[in-house]
UniProtKB/TrEMBL annotation:
Organism of provenance: Streptomyces tauricus
Source superkingdom: Bacteria
CDD domains in the cross-refs: yflN-like_MBL-fold (cd07721)
All residue ranges annotated as the Metallo-beta-lactamase domain in the record: 19-228
Name used for this protein in its record: MBL fold metallo-hydrolase
Alphabetical list of SUPFAM superfamilies matching this protein: Metallo-hydrolase/oxidoreductase
Length: 248
């Protein structure tokens, strides 16, 4: 099964893998890849690059919103195979190295197994490498504040809570926000559709995740590219407000 690729603006593609998304930013022959899906999504990642007329060799950098396995899956593969640098927030660097792991545990999943969607999601996560050991050997912190000198000129926005170093990426000229898991638009374990926080068990610090909605509210843009769920069109600030209302 191929990944579902949606072009949302010139040079900006949202790719739906297996229960998780990644984003491809193109500029001429060069590419920025934001997140890389589960380890089991590798062929989908490579196929999605080909589908937009690119290749893994053309990836200038991998940007990681956060170092959970369903977003970090092929980052080290691209780094070790093609020499692609992997960047993330400085607070997420040790997490990407797997100096520690802040990720939902098997015990937490079992406690929530009665909830609709949790068991099918857990089975899929296991089959896709959700518990695999996929550290990045040499993750790098963003080299400077402000827009990164990469295709798409993404601006990192620290949005801690889901993990300590969770980071969104703002594309101000395009009016696009890549929100990772700080603000999603659905999830297999959620009973509702639309802008929301992930269920409580997925957050390292849910209070922090709720507070980081303030950062999303401050971003200009009318296209939200989430880590889970479809593209959301409409003011990002309103999406953040709706997520806050649902979380209260």
């Amino acid at each position: 099964m191929q990944a579902d690729i949606r072009q949302v603006a010139d040079g900006i593609h949202l790719v739906h893998g297996s229960n998780t998304n990644w984003v491809i930013l193109t500029e001429g022959d060069a590419v920025t890849l934001v997140d890389t899906g589960y380890p089991g999504d590798r062929e989908k990642v490579l196929a999605s690059l080909s589908a937009v007329g690119s290749s893994p060799e053309a990836v200038t950098a991998v940007l990681v919103t956060h170092a959970h396995n369903d977003h970090l899956g092929s980052a080290e593969y691209l780094s070790s195979t093609y020499g692609t640098p992997v960047y993330t927030h400085e607070a997420e660097v040790p997490h990407a190295r797997r100096d520690f792991l802040h990720q939902v545990t098997v015990g937490q999943v079992l406690k929530n197994a009665w909830r609709p969607g949790v068991v099918p999601w857990a089975v899929h996560a296991l089959r896709s490498g959700g518990t695999a050991h996929v550290p990045v050997a040499r993750p790098r912190a963003f080299p400077a504040e402000g827009a990164l000198d990469l295709p798409g000129r993404p601006v990192p926005v620290h949005t801690p809570g889901h993990t300590a170093g969770h980071c969104a990426f703002h594309l101000p000229e395009a009016g696009v926000v890549i929100s990772g898991d700080g603000l999603v638009n659905g999830h297999p374990t959620s009973r509702v559709a639309g802008p929301q926080l992930l269920p409580v068990m997925f957050h390292h610090d849910r209070g922090g995740a709720l507070a980081s909605l303030d950062a999303f509210e401050a971003l200009s843009g009318d296209v939200l590219l989430p880590g889970h769920g479809p593209v959301h069109r409409g003011p990002v600030r309103e999406a953040a407000r709706r997520a806050r209302e649902r979380a209260s």
